[in-house]
TrEMBL record:
It comes from the Bacteria. It comes from Cognatishimia activa. One of its GO terms (molecular function) is ATP binding. GO terms for cellular component: cytosol. The gene is acsA_4. This is Acetyl-coenzyme A synthetase. The keyword Isomerase does not apply. PANTHER family: ACETYL-COENZYME A SYNTHETASE, ACETYL-COENZYME A SYNTHETASE 1. It is an enzyme of class 6 (ligase).
Length: 655
């Protein structure tokens, strides 16, 4: 047993002497877990009380994974407001406490802001009134395309306050991706900013929005927040947020919402087609986000919590905004990147704001590990108590570095496995309750019932020391409810391969002790720097280029990003491969989707390996991209086996 595992059994303590008795220990975990799955109505009926209801619920769980009738409802007759749960209910007890610490990209230009719950109440109410004045009503969709500035949180909570459904588009996405999402959810309004400073560079969000809206309805309006004050063009549909907020009232009652009214839509990539709009509703999501935030990070009153994600991803929704604020926490919103102005930035911020819980992605840990220990050692990290990891499997080397160098061997690491679809953590250790194992997400959170299935037969694999695909036997309150506008796609994507179960898309191993290890996606989704990417999306961007005839995209192991994007490209007849064309295609994909989708390697493929019925054999392409072509298996069923030799001879990833 390692030091790390024995340590997590006792107390969770920071080096500055503050010791906290963890909320959950091994015994209470076992007892509560049993209760959560044997009597979900009783368990969630009790924990559903952790948030404030306007009209209390009388029904707890009403869920069906039955083919043809996928129907998920939690607390369905209760009413509440998410914004009031994150703000109003704290005002009497902690109005002057800091709710949000905003850490700007460049502190030589601006100081961090400390926004109290009273401030938050005022700003969110003003933003809500601005939205109302622009005609936004309960049930309307609002796209948020903002940098990591306080206004992003205000916008989310303002929508929630008036019952509008927000859909955040990560500021790194292109105008095309933005336009597709505006149209996809039929948004009435886009909230954006002039520019998004990040890592010392500026993304022109307003001009991106102008471009995106060329392909949208004329009556879509645009609300523009001033971030840098840089020059932008102005059109008839634009409204100046700062001017409107100045004159708006700071009194805006929170509307009564049903537990099952949508709170937000978040687009995410899948194995086929274009990104789908994951719908989360209000009651179950708030219960689940706040409970996981408190227990998984062992959050205690007065702690300073920092999740380094962007609000454009679900991690930012649940663990920068909704979970922490529902718990009355102080949450940090960081505008910058881990390596600007230097590789000490994360640790400088941890020292400055006395961070107690720190939550980031393995890709950032690996990048900072590569920068050297001296960057960490420059700073006083004695307030840290719990470290978190999310987004992809964490390799033991990175885990150990995180544990030893950042956590000084005394901060439990919670490796949290979850998804946009799950709303909150699914598999994770709990600080003080779980004996830690580097690289394993370990145990289900309360109410989560993982099962391992045999991939082809779909049979349940019982017992330990087994591998298969990861499914969930029953619903949990944070589960997505549908795909926006396409309930059939919801059923097809998550409930049709393995009937009666929610299918995660991930492979997993349950080890001899019953701990879970995520082995990666088993579908055509790849995970690049913790960002999820559908290979089909990158392919369709590539074939949209006039010189490209066909393309196949796969992932390959990448030291820092986890997975890199490997694109096989077949050119149109008569087109010549060249380094210029390679550059051109890279730029093309960046502009079609965004910088995160840029292929790392492009191989010119005279042909792709296909079966006689024309299906691309991705298994072979993955192997070649992994530089592991010794075990390609049977290639004799290919229409033209010789293309494989060419692909191997000209492979891009050697060693
Ligand atoms: C996919 C979900 C919600 C978290 C941010 C990503 C992978 C996520 C882990 C982990 C191994 C992980 C899975 C999952 N993943 N966390 N701790 N260990 N893999 O959310 O974009 O919806 O991606 O990320 O493959 O299916 P997402």
């Amino acid at each position: 047993m390692s030091d790390a595992s024995t340590r997590s059994e006792s107390v969770v303590q920071s080096a500055n002497g503050s010791t906290k008795t963890p909320h959950i220990n091994a015994e209470t975990y076992a007892q509560m877990y049993d209760a959560s799955v044997s009597q979900p109505d009783v368990f969630w009926g009790e924990h559903g009380q952790r948030i404030d209801w306007i009209k209390p619920f009388t029904k707890v769980k009403n869920t069906s994974f039955e083919p043809g009738n996928i129907d998920i409802r939690w607390f369905e007759d209760g009413t509440l407001n998410a914004s009031a749960n994150c703000i109003d209910r704290h005002l009497a007890t902690r109005g002057d406490q800091t709710a949000i610490i905003w850490e700007p990209d460049d502190t030589s230009k601006q100081e961090p802001l400390h926004i109290t719950y009273n401030d938050l109440h005022r700003s969110v109410s003003k933003m809500a009134n601005v939205l109302k004045d622009l005609g936004v009503e309960k049930g309307d969709r609002v796209i948020i395309y903002l940098p990591m500035i306080p206004e992003a949180a205000y916008a989310m909570l303002a929508c929630a306050r008036i019952g509008a459904i927000h859909s955040i588009v990560f500021a790194g996405f292109s105008p095309d991706a933005l336009g597709a999402r505006v149209n996809g959810c039929g948004a009435k309004l886009v909230i954006t900013a002039d520019y998004a400073p990040r890592g010392g560079r500026e993304t022109p969000l307003k001009s991106n929005t102008d471009t995106a809206l060329l392909h949208c309805d004329d009556d879509v309006q645009c609300l523009v927040v001033k971030r840098t004050g840089g020059q932008t063009t102005w059109t008839d549909r634009d409204h100046d947020y700062n001017k409107l907020a100045e004159i708006a009232s700071d009194d805006c009652p929170a509307v009564e919402m049903n537990a099952e009214d949508p709170l937000f839509i978040l687009y995410t990539s899948g194995s086929t087609g274009q990104p789908k709009g994951v719908v989360h509703t209000t009651g179950g999501y708030m219960v689940y986000a706040s409970m996981t935030h408190e227990l998984v990070f062992d959050y205690h009153d007065g702690d300073i919590f920092w999740c380094t994600a962007d609000v454009g991803w679900v991690t930012g929704h649940s663990y920068i905004v909704y979970g922490p604020l529902a718990n009355g926490a102080t949450t940090i919103m960081f505008e910058g990147v881990p390596t600007y102005p230097d590789a000490g930035r994360f640790w400088e911020v941890c020292e400055k704001h006395k961070v107690n819980q720190f939550y980031t992605a393995p890709t950032a840990i690996r990048a900072l590990m590569g920068a050297g220990n001296e960057w960490v050692e420059k700073y006083d990290l004695s307030d840290l108590r719990v470290l978190g990891s999310v987004g992809e499997p964490i390799n033991p080397e990175a885990w150990n570095w995180y544990n030893d160098v950042v956590g000084k061997g005394r901060c439990p690491i919670v490796d949290t496995f979850w998804q946009t679809e799950t709303g909150g953590h699914m598999l994770t250790p709990l600080p003080g309750a779980t004996e830690l194992k580097p690289g394993s997400a370990q145990q289900p959170f309360f109410g989560v019932q993982p099962v391992v299935l045999e991939p082809t037969s779909g049979e349940i694999i019982e017992g330990n020391g087994v591998d298969g695909v990861l499914c969930m036997r029953d619903s949990w309150p944070g589960q997505m409810r549908t795909v926006w506008g396409d309930h059939e796609r919801f059923e097809k994507t998550y409930f049709s391969d393995y009937k009666g179960y929610y299918f995660s898309g991930d492979g997993c191993r349950r080890d001899e002790d019953g701990d879970y290890w995520i082995t990666g996606r088993v579908d055509d989704v790849i995970n690049v720097s913790g960002h999820r990417m559908g290979t089909a999306e990158v392919e369709s961007a590539l074939v949209a280029h006039a010189k490209v005839a066909e393309s196949a995209v796969v992932g390959y192991p990448h030291d820092v990003k986890g997975q890199g994007i490997y694109a096989y490209v077949t050119l149109m007849n008569g087109e010549e491969p060249s380094d210029e064309l390679r550059k051109e295609l890279e730029v093309w994909v960046r502009t079609e989707i965004g910088p995160i989708a840029k292929p790392d390697l492009i191989q010119w493929a005279p042909g792709l390996p296909k079966t006689r019925s024309g299906k691309i054999m991705r298994r072979i392409l993955r192997k070649i991209a992994e530089d592991d072509f010794g075990s390609l298996g049977d290639t004799s069923t290919l229409a033209d086996p010789s293309v494989v030799d060419d692909l191997i001879a000209n492979r891009m990833n050697r060693g």
